Amino acid sequence: MPTEPIDPSRPPGPPGPSSLPAVTGTPRQPPPHGGPLRRGLRLLLQLLRRLAGVLLALLILFEEWGWEPLQRALARLGRLPLLRRLEAAITRLPPLAALAVLALPALLLLPVKLLALGLIAHGQRLLGLAVIVLAKLIGTAVLARLFTLTRPALLQLPWFVALYARWGAWKATLLARVRASWAWRTGRAFKRLARRQWGRWRAGGHTSA
Questions:
Q1: CA-CA distances (angstroms) from residue 93 to 78, 98, 103, 146?
Q2: Distances (CA, A) of 54 to 11, 59, 102, 135, 189
Q3: Which of 103, 116, 157, 202 gives 132 a disulfide partner, CB atoms 3.0 to 4.6 angstroms apart?
Q4: What is the pLDDT of residue 79?
Q5: Is residue 5 pLDDT above 90, yes or no?
Q6: Where are the beta strands (DSSP E) in the chain?
Q7: Please, which contacts does 128-135 make with residues 24 or more away whose CB atoms are closer than 8 Å?
């Protein structure tokens, strides 16, 4: 194998470019954008967003189903003379005072909810859960009735009108999606079937009697 003759006049040093081995192959590519950590965080955020959407949808459905029946129940109680005078006074409130009255149920029920959490913390889970459910039902009923009474005054506030319109549009869109879902259609079909079976059972009971 021929070798390059050594020039004694050349000072010693690193080898020149011609003596270095050639580098072949494609350059190393950087990792894809985001990497596995960012993809995992993105997936986690999507799951949390979907979970929050489901919980909010359940809350809205509860308010939707319970709002009118509970409001009508309190309206029947409002026929009592004392409550009738109280409701008449609420309808005459100015907008800001009506807004303050609308916030009263949440403030008044806060100690009750704290008591329920204390019961759960001390091992009385069923009792604490029952107190929370009862407080939710009472709070929804009172809030629904107060909103019906104060809505004319609240609609005099421009920011409330804009917020109420956006809330109504968003809730209508969400309810449309829920009603188009398989679970909703299955539940409605089961409800109709149960109602027919109940009607047949009652008709059979009356006939046999």
A1: 17, 6, 14, 12
A2: 78, 9, 26, 22, 21
A3: 116
A4: 76
A5: no
A6: none
A7: 135/109
- Identify the residue whose tokens are 């204390």: 118
Output Rg (C-alpha) for the chain, integer angstroms: 35
Distance CA 124, CA 118 (A): 9
The DSSP call for residue 209 is -
Instruction: Determine the pLDDT at residue 119.
Output: 87
- Mention every residue, 6+ apart, whose C-beta is less than 8 A from residue 91: 149, 150, 152, 153
Whole-angstrom distance, CA of residue 139 vs CA of residue 125: 21
C-alpha neighbours within 13 Å on the C-beta side of residue 120:
12
The CA-to-CA distance between both ends of the chain, in Å, stands at 118
Helices (H) and strands (E) in the chain, counts: 7, 0
pLDDT at 34 over 80: no
